[in-house]
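hey so i finaly got around to running the thing on histidine kinase from Alteromonas mediterranea. pasting the sequence first so u can double check i didnt mess up the copy paste, my clipboard has been acting weird all day
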Amino acid sequence: MKNKLLWRLCALIAVGTVLLFWAIAWLTNHTETSMSFLDKAHQKTLYAYGKEAEKIYLEKGEKALAVFLKEIRTKENSWLAVVNSEMTTFAGTKMLDEFADRFQIGRSPEWKVHLYFSENPVMEVPFVDDNTHFLIQLPQRMRPGSLLLATRLTLQIALPLVILSLLSFMLYRHVMTPLKQLERATKDFANGNLEARAMATMPERNDELTTLAQTFDKMAQRTSSLIYNQRSLLADLSHELRTPLARIDMAIDFVEQDINREQALSRLRYEASTMRELVEDTLTFAWLNTESPQLNSDDFDLVELINVICEDARFEYPDRTLYVDTPECASIGKSSQLALGQALENIVRNALRHTPQKSKVSLTLVSDNQNYIITVTDEGVGVPDSMLDAIFEPFFRVDKARANKTYVHSSKRSGFGLGLALAKRQVAAIGGEISAKNRINSNDTPATARTHAKGTSEKRQAGLVVTITLPKLSNAAFAN
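ok and heres what it spat out for the 3d tokens, dont ask me to read them lol
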């Protein structure tokens, strides 16, 4: 589901708002209800007035009752009376005009008192005969709800403010917790910790902020990988340049001392060319590795490109046989003839370089519904299985992985270890894939083949198989 954070926040706010209004309404109603009853002490006081009035009336008569009622009236500053069921007053009392028309029966002290009425209600304490009633207008000091205003302000202002503050804090924590983790990871990464990642400390969740953290981690992974690669590339390049620079220094000394001047000048030209080629290959590799370009501007015939490369290779290595098996044509679209040509040239020359004289290198091209598959097989000694992935790394010397170096022409450069690394990046830039595996000699028995694969027996001629898979319409075209 898209916009998970939006829906989660909307649900939290909506549910929180509904619960807030419900809580305020319930608390207000419950609080006002509980505040609408007389205090227990006041109830006892009113009942005591009624019982005392009844006792005086029964024991001492109406005059004594009138005196008692006058004392209570003065004390409570409120109207009171004693009436019978026919609404006839006695003991010197009279009915108030505002109650005369509508009074029927008083309110028990235990009953609820309406807090919003302006006048105080008349409370009743019946005598034992149920025909005589002690009536008293509730004294102001006994009226409940004196804290009603403060309570309403608390429930309608303070409580919502507290609840909304808590809700805001929860929303803040929900949003800011992953953002703070991301901020911390960003600061660590900016301070040089290239292994800093946001998802490592991110709480378990699945929303837009998680996606942001994952995106940051991908960026950090790519950036750190590029930095590590650049550092390694610079270290390897500086190491590779030391040898030709040392030779150049020696050649300059020979020229200055007029020792083998022509040979020294030839060496200078050779080493300068070597360094130029090394720097150009390194810059090309760095560009491919850093920019990860998508090369998809050419449409061409793959067979024609292979034939041109193989003719050049045959001329350079006349003492080896280069066998080519391709269809009449193989059109490929949205690719790069230059990048693919350089990759194929590096792979073919690498195979020829590590194939002994009078031996064969095979190049085959087949196709399926969507891809072209180019296979280059040499008859060298192969590569230890543990190094099959490493041969595509920069400055990895294939010769170091091969068991026998006698196949390399002494008159030709053995390479800088950039050929297959460049080939892999160039093939990737046009949407293809490249892989390598060892070819076991077909004359070996299964047991011998397994032994060769483990590299535990005497090294025997086997070979390396490099496979390139190219989409007929490059995937890079769809990426745009």
